[in-house]
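Hi R.,

Here's the chain you asked about this morning:
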Amino acid sequence: MAVNDNDPIETKEWLDAFTSLVKEEGKERGQFIVETLLQAAHRKGVPVGPEAYLSPYCNTIPVNEQPEYPGDLAIEKRIEALLRWNAIAMVLLARRDAGGVGGHLSSYASIATLYEVGHHHFFHGATKDQLGDLVYFQGHSAEGNYARAFLEGRLTKKQLTHFRQEAGGDGLSSYPHPWLMPNFWQFATVSLGLGPLQAVYQARFIKYLENHKLLPPSDRKVWMFAGDGEMDESESLAGITLAGREKLDNLIYVVNCNLQRLDGLVRSNGKIVQELEGHFRAAGWRVIKVLWDSHWDALFAKDKKGLLLQRLTQAVDGELQNSYVRDVAHQRAFLAGEDSELKAIIDSLSDEEIASLHRGGHDPVKIYAAYAAAISTKGQPTVILAQSVKGYGLGTAYGEGRNVAHNQLDMPEEGLKAFRSRFDLALSDKQLLNLEFYKPDEKSAELKYLQAKRQQLGGYLPERQVKKNPLKVPSLAAFDVVLKGSGDRDMSTTMALGRILNVLLKDPALAPRIVPIFSDEVRTFGLEALFRQIGIYSPVGQLYTPEDKEQFLYYRESEDGQLLEEGITEAGCMSSWLAAATSYATHRLPMVPFFVYYSMFGFQRVGDFIWAAGDMRARGFLIGATAGRTTLEGEGLQHQDGHSLVTASTLPNCRAYDPAFAYEMAVIIQRGLVEMVSEEKDVFYYIMAMNERYIQPELPKGVEEGIIKGLYLLQEAKAAKKKVQLLGGGAILREVLAAAELLKKDFGIAADVWSVTSFNELRREAADLQRSAMLTPDKKAPLSYLEKCLGKRVGPVVAATDYVRLYAEQVRPFSSKTYVTLGTDGFGRSDTRQNLRHHFEVDRYYIVVAALYALAQEGTVPTKQVTEALKKYNIDRNKPNPLVV
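And here is the predicted structure, written out as tokens:
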């Protein structure tokens, strides 16, 4: 009842009328009337507060609508107790015996029951004949997954003993890492926010595959578990409007609302559950609250006026949490508040009854009801807001419900004994204090029940299954339209990418598997022909006539559209790309995604997702379009990429290339397809693409191997005493070619020109050989490919790229030559390509100066020749260094 109600009799009449309506005509009629009244209020200008869209602070599913629990609660309780103990023992053992690597005690303690109800009754595993559910487990509760896998017989005691100790080969990763445990984990989720967004786009990708008839329609669900604190990450809520808009009823979020983050409360002065409900309800989700356990049912039934519900709705989370860790007397006072009628109800309860009032996230009956409602929901995604306690079961003396819960890393003897009593564990003092893992006999009621439940649901989770499924890839000759050059037409490498995609989209084997993904830049990249050719995916087709319908390349949407036009969300695009790039494992269906984006907004903006791609063994292409720092005329600093290739070098399974010519791009993509689709290697490719147009030459003979290895001789000068080796790639290669002409014309110096498609690959191979030489000093050290190419060549090496100097510098330790680099260090700015290249000191004139300087360092030419060049090309010695601020 509202506090400012000045006519309670009239209010009661309205409420009684509504109650009668719902009773006689049903909930759907009640919903219609409420929505009609709200619309009328808006039309009349009557303000409607946010509370009108929020439900009271109680369980969404009424007691009389709860389904009968189908499991044996007593056995499930004993199984959960075993899991809780083994998870604690795992963490404490690692802390005690392995130098403190430890882990978290409180996260799994909070979420255990939410997991177990799913494992016993809902999470479908993959069988030989059908795919299972996809579960994004909360990253910080991995020890609970290991504890369950131990009881299932999938992990050994030795492995549990080596929790977080992986270097020796027998350990378990700290968090979900598919790269480290490729048969166990499916998704990388511990970087907060990545799991929720991945889950949305994974659910959507399943619908995409079904609409393309690549997968049959099914009841598979995508489950995502996260904490309420994690929902503050921008990625966590970024995809919920898409999920509501596309009615992804195969998606279920379970947000574990223990009200705490690492340092304290998520919303100490507010209510995080209500806040999240507002977000999800507005986005079109079904919201199910699981706030109070079954012991509250009788209490709510006594409260005929809803006074307790009003009290709980008004209390902020800080007050609610403070009450939890206090004694029964304090809890009584908290529940009663200032209302005498409510106080009388609360006083009628014994201390034992007050103490038994727990949160819904620890009650399997309430959780089951919520999960059952979620899986039966049609036409919208579901979020379950389950209220729990961080560190549940550890005891308030050891962090349970307290701000320090996340940092509780140890438990003394009395804490362990209290835990044993609370969960009725059959452990002797010796077993308890030695932190011995406990697994009942295989014939015990607990293990038989656990195994039977998983068999009924199809198998274990998490489990990553990869079936061999190589696909035939077109030969390099299939890309002749690109390999033969552009004739007398100017063409960018981005345009070449369009032609390459066109070839693939006509290939019988690969065409259905190609997934082009864009973040609203298709026209920018000149690839809008894809709109007409393959259409834009829309689950509802095209409900309007596009204004450009009369044009040949109109904006065409369809249910079987192949292109994913995600809008302005690189994070969303990466999540779609991840779903497609790991489809070979999650759906037993290899797909080939191409995510094309402004290169500046890839590794810089969504590098965390790209790192997750490496961890998740993704296979696909990332295309960094409008690449380089000087290719974008007039765009300026925030659109200019000088560093993504350096960032890419940090990922071991990322093959990064910077092609200057269309034929180079074709060779790289064809090789990537062979490696990822035919050979089924767990690598992915990052390829730069430029918008600068120029004549594209024909593929020279015999350079394919060099393109893939990262370096090949593009233009060889005649033998000469004064000679230099010029290296260039991407946007600056043509400046290098021009510099070679200037060196010959103005100074009589010969120059070999090398195209460097990947300094990253050159370094990786050279570093591997260097390591091998260090570990086998008794054997002759092999030459790196870089040294084979340049070692016996005459003259020093000058390398120039459109990226920071560090990109080319990374191979310096592996070259025996004098080595000078030029790059685009410092802040970018708006100007023409010509002026930008001069500003960053990577144009043909600076390359000539660098070559003369390198020759002078070797004594081949006099130093004054460098000075002459500076004067000849009007280079200002006093010009500020772009690198120095």
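One quick note: The longest strand covers residues 251-257.

Cheers,
M.
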